[in-house]
From TrEMBL:
GO terms for biological process: DNA biosynthetic process. InterPro entries: DNA/RNA_pol_sf, Retrotrans_Pao. It comes from the Eukaryota. The lineage of its organism: Eukaryota, Metazoa, Ecdysozoa, Arthropoda, Hexapoda. This is Uncharacterized protein.
Amino acid sequence: MGVLKNNFPKAAAATKNFYVDDYIGGAESDEEALELYKQLSGMFSTCGMSLRKWSSNSEKLLENIPPENRELASSKMFDSEATVKTLGLIWNPTSDKFHFNELKIEENVTKRSMLTTIARVFDPLGSIAPVTIQGKVLVQKAFEERVNWDDEVSGELKEEWLRYKSELTNLPAINFPRYVGVKPAVEIIGYCDASEKAYGACVYVLSEDSNGKPNMHLLCAKTRVAPSKNRQTIPRLELMGAVLLAELMEKVMTAVSIPVSKAKCYTDSMIVLHYLRSNDPARWKTFVANRVALINEIIPHSKWAHVRSASNPADCLSRGCS
């Protein structure tokens, strides 16, 4: 393995972008993309393997890839309607945007069909987390009714689900850019929030283009339904949201090689900020103390600040929106 790293350094570094046998990556220029392709092909060829089904929005790169190793012919790749399946999402090389698949939705409204529908929404980055959290909350309500798996839920819940289901038919119209320009990143900014129904966190990247103009893009988001058995207070749910944000920030910083010095986290809970700025977390009860220690281990309390609820983008994660 050491020999491969020495001979193919860029390819070796790119192996973290493999998911099972699929590779998703990118480059800042055609030249960089071509060099990465050559190194990846060379490294796998050394191991007796061949990489196939290549897709790219770079014509220069595709010209250097044998036709038999491409996902689509070059003439079709840049057709405005041409799309490529990418780990459960649809990618349009021409617009360089991801789209969602059309969702097959069950007609009946049972606990099983509701759970099946939610499981079919593949959103690895949480781009539509404010939408999916609504469905998860409704599924939780279905479980609280204690109906059998294939029995219809109550009339009120059924009406809520049918309204939600009608919104899911609009998923194919949603798209988001593949490239968000994390290098050179000026700052990685995270927000968290909680309500009695759910809590969530989202991470944005603030960068500058070649002209020094700032750009801010959503990188990812994550939500959790508030536990129904052991009901928690809002301050505790806000703290759980802060834990979720810290863990999400850690994953992002590792993935894009951004140091914690360029991180900033925001919460609209003054209680959470008070917890985090305590010099002795052990003074709190175990529930709070353990979570405060975990957060501070990932993101120092000096990197946390307050944001007004009206300005907190994570608000829609905890409450859901259409």
